[in-house]
Amino acid sequence: MTKINTLLVANRGEIACRIMRTAIAQGLRTVAVYSDADAKALHVKMADDAVWIGPAPVNESYLLIDKIIQAAKDTGADAIHPGYGFLSENAAFSQACANAGIIFVGPPEKAIDVMGDKARSKRAMITAGVPCVPGYQDDDQSDETLISEAKKIGAPLMVKAAAGGGGRGMRLVHDLGEVPNAIKLARSEAENAFGNGELILEKAIIKPRHVEIQVFADSHGNTIHLGERDCSVQRRHQKVIEEAPCPVLTLELRAQMGAAAVEAARAVDYVGAGTVEFLLDQSGEFYFLEMNTRLQVEHPVTEEITGLDLVALQLKVAQGDLLGITQDDVKLSGHAMEVRLYAEDPNDDFLPSTGHIDLWKPSDLSRVDSGIETGGEVSPFYDSMVAKIITHGATRDEARRRMIKALSETALFGPKTNRDFLIDALDKPDFVDGQATTAFIAENYGEGGVDLGTLSFEYYAIAAVLQHKLRQRAAHKMALNVNTEMLDWSNTGALETVVQYTGQNEGDEDKQSIHVHVSDPHKYKVTRGGDEADVELLSMSTDKAKLKVNGHNVIAIYHHNHRTLHIATPKRSLTVTDLTGLSAMEDAGGGGTVVAPMHGQLLEILVEEGMRVSKGDKLAVLEAMKMQHEILAEIDGTVEMIAAKAGTQIAADDLILEIAADEDKIDDT
């Protein structure tokens, strides 16, 4: 038996970090691979060694089998763990590892090959006696045959790509007249996404639960299951909330589904970790959906209720060792939940969001699997899931309440995220009651974007008070011999600060002026037109503040970057930029050093290196907060260097250009 000493992780992000944590704990040497976009990523920093494999696009880096095999050879890796996604379910990659004498931490080529094709896997499962959804999965792929078979199945039905997953190449048909167009669209998507236009048809199970069974097998013929996970809360067939065990499964049904999953694994001589996915209808009937021949994103909830480290088990059986546990050894304890934190905008149809991470502050109340850190980047080239948050409790409701609490103490500032949506979803009555099905999001939020309601004035009042204090602290640092106790005090009457925001979180492009009136030190009356709020600042650290707002205590995590302020309260998040005095951009130039006053897109640079400019000349145009802002020269001089590029996103305080001041304008005194 070959022992693993050096493990190469052929992946990135949170799963690469997750695998490395176990490998490092076992004393293994670890190797990362990375693209141009991931040169400074967390998984690269964690590894003992790292190998560059190409440009950012996946087909030029993470999907290149030859480069990854070569990286393993060059670093002396005994084994490769593929994680999930990318090459994890690629039979050719498994075989390439075998050909190179490298252990592939996953199943053999046969299992990947059969289970990676929905048509072949379904035929194999029917032969093995595993319950399957009625449908068509044969070789004749002519439109005529597919349309004819669709009529036999009847509506509603699913037209699905035989290869791949993730909801691509999938169409739900309610009217048989829609079948020809559904075939055309699904086939086109499948060919573009997977290079394979083969389709299958299945009877649509309306409002089912998505229940999957974790299986494990060694190379000595031992196969067991580790219970189930309920992954019903999905959008566009992508899982959002997962839990274990399933809220409605009886002991008898768990045993039946577990036995079926074990038979499915044995039918393809499976080795390693795998997941058999089923649809569970409202009558208690279950049907094979597919098998994922890899570690699942949601494996932590199984770890939490079984006490097992699934990556450690993968490494164990990959070396040829016995699994070491029997079905009778598997005990399920308590309840676990996992949510996927995505960099996306739920309000805008869940569109991915990318950019600089100003602050990543996860809660200490939960297990957090992530591959990001403050100062990093969310790249547009890869999946938008950036972290997983996992909680465990003695009961389902305890795990759910802990999750809400953990999310309320979590902040990711920079890209937009689905944090607020997750908090809201976890508190919906049908989820609280354990009745969520795959229709949960559509039923509770409708189609398209998610509207969580207009933010109340209190959130803007909190922002205004925090910016008032931040301005005050900045000014105090520059002052001499001013006692901090004198802040918020004046002998000329009440102090007032004015901030000016756009209503970006409400879809309101108009400016709004908010007045902060100091009534007593640390106590404020905040007004906006007819709105008002009483705010008391109880405490304030570098990234967290405790306030009393209209008599109620609120904890706010915050991050301040120049004029932009990010806030995360227990239920809602807010990002505002103070536009007060911005029309003149008096602070944008900073003398000869010209920096971006806020995050935005640099639309134009209107000067060139070597060009003479005078004070007040227009240097650049920045688009931020749905408005265009002119950046003006503050001094006379010559443009010495241009650091930024027009048409790109730029962060607050990033250097745009530098101006060398005219010598006769410099004060030498």
Automatic annotation (TrEMBL):
SMART domains: Biotin_carb_C (SM00878). Pfam families: Biotin_carb_C, Biotin_carb_N, Biotin_lipoyl, CPSase_L_D2. One of its GO terms (molecular function) is ATP binding. Residues 585-660 form the Lipoyl-binding domain. Its cofactor is biotin. Residues 122-319 form the ATP-grasp domain. The keyword Phosphoprotein does not apply. InterPro entries: ATP-grasp, BC-like_N, Biotin_BS, Biotin_carboxylase_complex, Biotin_carboxylation_dom, Biotin_COase_C, Biotin_lipoyl, CPAse_ATP-bd. This is ATP-grasp domain-containing protein.
